[in-house]
Specification:
Layout: H1 9-21, H2 29-44, E1 46-49, H3 64-69, E2 76-82, E3 91-92, E4 98-99, E5 101-108, H4 111-116, E6 131-139, E7 144-147
Parallel strand pairs: 1-2
Antiparallel strand pairs: 2-5, 3-4, 5-6, 6-7
Helix pairs in contact: 1-2
Length: about 150
């Protein structure tokens, strides 16, 4: 059995994102605001370490009971997972970017969250609520953390 090792992915990503925020142009307040919202959410999140590839359930054994139990334990959660393939390289993201470290910033969808991320307001009408996931990943080639734009 593997021992659990502290990854500190979120701490390192926060360091880098705070430095990156200083480089966002002054005439782009919306981008700066969205960027800082993600930084704030990551900072307040409860962190969890997942195994390689976030393999918690054998997909061949996935049942409805697993899906029914899938709930976030806190309003904002950061799931940190290494993503190392058997060849020793990081997993591929779109565009062939190798990424050996990943963070899923997960939030329970609420009115308060929609106020912090205005692009989500349109989903307030959804009957069953849900969760919001913002992917953050380490670009192995560029040696930097990357966040996907909130509205694409």
């Amino acid at each position: 059995m593997e021992s659990v090792k502290s990854l500190h992915y979120s701490a390192h990503a926060l360091e880098q994102f705070k430095q990156s925020a200083l480089t966002i142009r002054k005439d782009m307040p919306g981008i700066h605001s969205a960027f800082m919202t993600v930084v704030s959410l990551l900072q307040e999140s409860v962190k969890f370490i997942l195994p390689n590839h976030a393999d918690l359930i054998d997909m061949n054994d996935l049942r409805q009971v697993h899906i029914n139990m899938a709930r976030l334990p806190f309003p904002v959660v950061a799931l940190e997972a290494p993503w190392i393939h058997p060849d020793g390289g990081g997993g591929d993201k779109s565009g062939g970017v190798r990424s050996s470290k990943r963070i899923a910033l997960c939030m329970i969808f609420t009115v308060e969250l929609a106020e912090r991320i205005p692009e989500l307001v349109v989903f307030l009408k959804e009957e069953h609520g849900g969760a919001v996931v913002i992917p953050l990943w380490w670009d192995d080639g560029g040696s930097k953390w990357t966040m996907r734009a909130l509205a694409e």
